[in-house]
Write a structure and sequence with these properties.
binds adenosine monophosphate; 6-stranded mixed sheet; alpha/beta; elongated
């Protein structure tokens, strides 16, 4: 195993005391490996998991040419683009109830959506344009050969891989796997993530606050953020700034977890023991990241577990989680091809910003008659967790960027997508 120091040393522009966000991402990525284990699960339980196998269809989907509309199945040679014609209906084809006789010259078959195309027929004329009297069907001009027919295998073709290992399984993939008749799939084992918060000032919910205490909220945001990633999360509670307790928490976490997340105790000049302990127990780098919020952060390895030592402030925890930890955990889970798109919106206001750091302001994207705009949620302190709750996006102000004028485009990262 390479040391963390070796892995990050080759990154151009790596500077632990003024680390750019993109360089921090690169440094983290250089130190990660995806989990190896896999297990077989029923399709439903595969939701949110990472596929560990290739899915190669054994069948075509759909399995037969079939009708896309309710109407009459006809031979394209019989119908005409220029004139009305008369056909004789020889039977009915329904979804799941095929009609077995071939369609001959001058004949047609009443057909419903999803029904297999009878032999000889290659075109469907929709019922709305035809006139039927008993078995006599009048088809108007204007029909095109092959219209309203869904070809066998147009969705999935037997023999050609449709999903690859590393695919994140969402609703569409579950349906797609089910459409092939597959009942079980192999998925990567869930990533194990242990987390705890450090700080003598932290009280746990349910207990009354003593003087100078605050309720620990970070464990709850972490619980929520980890749940959305589908990892197996172990909440190890609050750990006092006490070397003995901290040491045993780190040792316990690293014994079984793939990743450890802590909050607090990594800021400069802090009297916390966390930093010393992290450094003592493993190989841990302490970064000052050129970003706001979330400047101090520790990253490294304790035992076999990757460590993310996040700052203590509640907004900084969320920002560093979303900008660094989320992607890292996805990668470790074996996922490939994940992207967090940056979209462009017009700033509805001026925003103060100095070049030399990336800022993640909490914003609200909204639409007015001129298009998509974004405003900030107001107070942007790293302790103002309300700013995350009121926001629907991060306004990402790039490293080099200075102040933003109202009307300028800015990049936004939406909190919620459809999937
Ligand atoms: P630290 O990085 O340990 O100096 O923490 C910075 C600040 O973040 C502290 O002064 C607390 O106000 C706050 N903080 C730290 N941990 C938590 C937590 N678990 N929940 C809520 N706020 C916290
Ligand atoms: Mg602290």
């Amino acid at each position: 195993m390479n040391t963390i120091a070796q892995a990050v040393s080759c990154i151009e522009g790596y500077d632990p005391d003024a680390l750019r966000v993109d360089k921090a991402c690169e440094a983290i990525r250089a130190c990660l490996t995806p989990v190896a284990g896999a297990e077989r699960v029923p399709v439903r339980e595969a939701l949110g998991r990472v596929l560990a196998q290739e899915i190669v269809p054994q069948i075509d989907v759909p399995g037969h040419d079939n009708s896309a509309m309710d109407g009459w199945a006809v031979r394209s040679k019989d119908v005409s683009f220029d004139k009305e014609i008369q056909l004789n209906e020889i039977g009915k084809a329904l979804a799941g109830k095929p009609f077995h006789r071939p369609v001959g010259v001058g004949e047609c078959v009443r057909i419903m959506t999803g029904a297999v195309m009878p032999a000889g027929a290659d075109t469907v004329v929709v019922q709305e344009v035809c006139r039927a009297h008993g078995i006599n069907v009048t088809v108007p001009p204007g029909q095109r050969a092959g219209q309203n027919v869904r070809a066998a295998g147009e969705d999935l073709k037997a023999g050609s891989a449709v999903l690859k290992p590393g695919q994140w399984l969402r609703a569409a993939e579950l349906g797609l796997i089910a459409s092939l008749g597959i009942s079980e799939v192999s998925v990567k084992r869930r990533l194990r993530v242990a987390f705890f918060c450090t700080g003598d000032e932290l009280a746990s919910i349910g207990a009354p606050l003593q003087e100078g205490e605050i309720y620990d909220s970070n464990r709850y945001t972490l619980h929520g953020m980890l749940a959305a990633l589908g990892v197996q999360a172990f909440d190890m509670g609050v750990v006092r700034d006490d070397p003995v307790l901290l040491e045993s928490a780190f040792i316990k976490a690293s014994a079984s977890a793939d990743a450890i997340i802590t909050t607090g105790g990594v800021s400069v000049g802090e009297a916390d023991f966390v930093k010393q302990l992290m450094a003592k127990l493993g190989e841990v780098l302490f970064w000052k990241i050129a970003m706001r919020p979330g400047r101090p952060m520790a990253f490294g390895r304790i035992g076999d577990a990757i460590l993310f030592g996040l700052p203590g402030n509640p907004v900084a925890v969320m920002v560093t989680f979303y900008q660094f930890v989320r992607e890292a955990l996805q990668f470790m889970s074996g996922r490939v091809g994940f992207a967090n798109p940056l979209l462009s919106a017009t700033s509805a206001q001026s925003i103060r910003k100095v070049p030399g750091r990336t800022e993640y302001q909490r914003g609200v994207v909204f639409r007015d008659r001129n298009g998509w705009k974004v405003r900030t949620t107001g107070q942007q302190g790293s302790g103002v967790l309300r700013s995350m709750s009121e926001a629907n996006c991060f306004i990402v102000l790039e490293h080099e960027r200075g102040a933003v004028q109202a009307g300028e485009p800015v990049q936004v990262q939406l909190f919620e997508g459809l999937l």
